[in-house]
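User: My collaborator sent over this chain with a note saying "see what the structure looks like." That's all I know about it. Can you take a look?
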Amino acid sequence: MGLARDTYTLFLRELLIFKKNLGVNIARSLIFPILFIILLGAFGSSPKNIPVALVNYDNGLTSLQFINLLQSGDSIKIVSSTTQQAAMGMLAQGNVAAVIVIPNGFSSSQLPKPDIYMYLDNSQPQSASVINMVVNRVAAQMGTQITSASTALADPVSTPVPVVTNYAYGAASNYESFVVGGIVIMVAAFGSVFSSGFTVLSDRELGNLKAFLTTPINKFAILLSKIGYGTMQSLLSAYIGLAIGLALGATVAAGFLGVLELIWIIFLVGLSFGSLSIALAMRAKQLQTYALIGQSIVMPAAFLGGAFVPVSLLPPLLQTVSIANPLTYAVNAVRDIMIKGSLPIGDLVLDSAVLLVFAGLMLALAFVFFKNTSEQIS
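Assistant: Without extra context I'll predict from the sequence alone. Here is the result:
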């Protein structure tokens, strides 16, 4: 009971300090997501080697020619799949940006030809645009044209390649939702790192930390109050970023339930990085050193977690590294909630387990470093 009471009292102190600097804290939470959402939302470089799953039920000369032309440049990287079900599974998991299905009889001279089905992940508009451009170019090279399946196929000289486009993963989404999903997690991590650790270093420089350690209060209450404050800042920063994203066109497809799931995921991110920041602050002796280390951890972790680009588009080595990155699971969870409209229970358990294990490790590290450093100070 003493630990809980002391933690609550010190947490209220942190909130009073936050209130005193309310304008600065709110401005910091606003500027960061606004800049990144606007900059990344306007990002327009053309992606290369976009992974596309292809299912060829025909295996005829015309279909093989069609495939060879598709992968003749460096825009599309064909990933073969034996069945449409397997290919759609890859699309749902974000491993490919599109699925192209060539049906049996496509190489036959009999008219009308069967449709080629193309399923696009529209949550990545740049990739979808490139894929559409490549397919249209290939059709032109074959002396044909893209048309809907209902168009009459009367002219055997300029027979259209019938492609029926279906939007899959991000059917109800847009690129803003993709960007905001990553930014929310990144600002949550930054909000926690630049709150918990900074307050520890500030109290240490002002002599407040040493004063607290000489009082009868539970010493670990100091640590827990700092972590709690950082987690609170993490939630605040993330939801300000989400609000900005919604105002700029993003959506949360999962609705109210999705908002509750977002609170849980962001809480785990804040707890993890708040604990990590305490451990760093116990070792760093200057604010500049701490800030440099904090940025050097959060920015690469956000990048490798898919905050800026899909993990599937990273080089193979970085994709392997991203598997061990806890932010990868947080970003995937938020994107499922915002774009797919639901977070499957299996994914929720996996993502939560990874983040809980990471939070537990960082909390243990923070306790050890805090104990050792506090003994030296007092």
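A starting point for your reply to your collaborator: The first strand starts at residue 50 and ends at 56.
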